[in-house]
Amino acid sequence: MASIRSWLPSVSALAAGCALACAGAAWAQTDLDVPYVTTPPHVVEAMLQLAQVRASDYVLDLGSGDGRIVITAAKERGARGMGVEIDPRLVTLSNEKAKEAGVADRARFVEKDLFETDLTPASVITMYLLPEVNLKLRPSLLKLKPGTRIVSHDWDMGDWEPDAKITLDVPDKQLGLRKESTLMLWKVPARVDGAWSAGRQLAMQWTQTYQKLAGSVTYRGQSYPEATGRVDGNRIHLCFARYDEKRCRLGALGTLVDGTLRVLVDGEGRQQATLIARRESRH
User: Fold this and answer.
1) Residue 40, class by beta-carbon neighbours within 10 Å (0-12 exposed, 13-18 middle, 19+ buried)?
2) Which SS3 state, helix, strand or coil, does residue 232 take?
3) With contact defined as beta carbons under 8 Å apart, do 67 and 98 qualify?
4) What is the pLDDT of residue 173?
5) How far is it, in rounded angstroms, from Cα 81 to Cα 73?
6) Which of 134, 162, 169, 198 qualifies as a cystine partner to 275, CB 3.0-4.6 A?
7) How many Cα atoms occupy the beta-carbon half-sphere of 108 within 13 Å?
8) Is pTM, for the whole model, over 0.70?
9) What stretches in the chain show pLDDT beneath 50?
10) Residues 110-155: pLDDT tens digits?
């Protein structure tokens, strides 16, 4: 997102959220004379790089300010996208800038409430919103297509931990005491909780908390009661048994395809079996 906007219903709620990192600065969404904070060009580029934006992507910027993220994604990476902004003057400015940049056919901007915006077309979502807003959006984000990438500038998603995080120096940053920006990436995880089996060779029972898995596995008659895993979009990384915290003795890589989990089991550095597991039940 090119600017930090409140999207909150009251001055007091905004001030409470912003006081954590904005050194007491607060804005009220009571008229169109609301100041916004632009995202420096090198931070824009880092956000697009963190999301690995490609020409095949559709970028949705929530609170798009002057449009710089979507315009940069279109001009520099060939992507398509849309910016959602509540200030009509910024929407007009952004569409004019898209024309000037020669990307009006791939970058457009609309005046709309982000909570009334259809998020499903996006493969990448960028935002520079306050924590309360991120948390309010989180249920909708988790329902998106697995693998959808979400990049947030400075603000997290509560107990949904990011898949990646980077910190950049921003010497002229206007908010806060620290002259740096933190960028966080999440990939919407597929739901793989529940029971899975692949004939008599493999049985798995997983509970899922966002992208993290914990459960039990029985493989070729051997039980592994403290199995763990991690979901990366539609890709699943599993560990049945560990040498230690960093090394896995027996595990698997999986891909969720058409409701089945295709699993490549690997142990002692050697491929052991390729299996197709089917879901028996879901939590």
Assistant:
1) middle
2) strand
3) yes
4) 76
5) 8
6) 198
7) 5
8) yes
9) 6-35
10) 999 999 999 999 999 999 998 999 999 999 999 999 999 999 999 9
CB 182 within 8 A of CB 128: no
| Cα–Cα distance measured from residue 65 to residue 2, given in angstroms and rounded to the nearest whole number | 5
Gyration radius of the chain over CA positions: 22
Cα separation, 34 vs 28, whole angstroms:
7
- Rounded-to-integer distance, Cα 119 and Cα 20, Å: 28
Query: Would you state the pLDDT for residue 241?
Result: 95
Alpha carbons 212 and 101: distance in angstroms, whole number: 42
Q: Where are the alpha helices (DSSP H) in the chain?
A: 11-18, 41-50, 68-77, 88-100, 131-142
Whole-number pLDDT of residue 177? 64
Q: Select from 34, 32, 51 the least CA-distant residue to 43.
A: 51
Of 237, 278, 256, nearest to 146 (Cα)?
256
Q: What angle do CA 279, 282, 283 make, to 5 degrees?
A: 155
**CA 169 from centroid of its chain's CA atoms:** 22
Selection from 212, 274, 209 nearest residue 237 by Cα:
212
The reported pLDDT for the residue numbered 33 is: 34
Residue length of the chain? 283
Return the DSSP state at 53. -
Average pLDDT, the chain: 87
